[in-house]
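**Entry details**
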Amino acid sequence: MPVSFSYNKQEKLKSRKLLEQVFAEGKSFSVFPFKVFYISPAVELDFPIKTGVGTSSKIFKKAVDRNYVKRLIREAYRLNKTPLHNYMHEHKKQLAVFILYVGKELPQLPQLQTKMPLLIDKLINALHENFVANT
C-alpha cells in the first residue's frame, strides 16, 4: 500500500449513526492529552478507517480555539496515520475512531506530534488484542 499523507473527505467520520455507535458501544483509552474512542463497525464503510476529532467547549470557550485544536489534531494524525492504515489493510478490517482532546491548555503542534505515534501504537495494540480474542 503506498504511503499517503492526505486526510480527505472519505476518511472523516461524519455519519451521526456511526458517531453515536462509537460513543455508545465503542471501547476507549487515554493517552494524555487525548482520549480515543473506537469501534469496528458491523456495516461496510467506504473507507477502511473513519476518523473524527473534537474538543470540549467547556474547556475552550472560543470557537476559534476549538477549531485551532481540531486542526492541529488532524494534522498530527495525517502525518502519523500510516502504521494504523497498514495494520488495518493487512487484516482487512474496518475501524471508526474518534480522537478527543482533553487537555486544558492550547497545544502546540510539536507536542501533539510526539503524542500521536504513542496513541496510534496503543490503538494498534488494542485492536490486535481484540482480533486475537475474537479468533
Q: What stands out?
A: The chain has four helices and four strands. The mean pLDDT is 91.
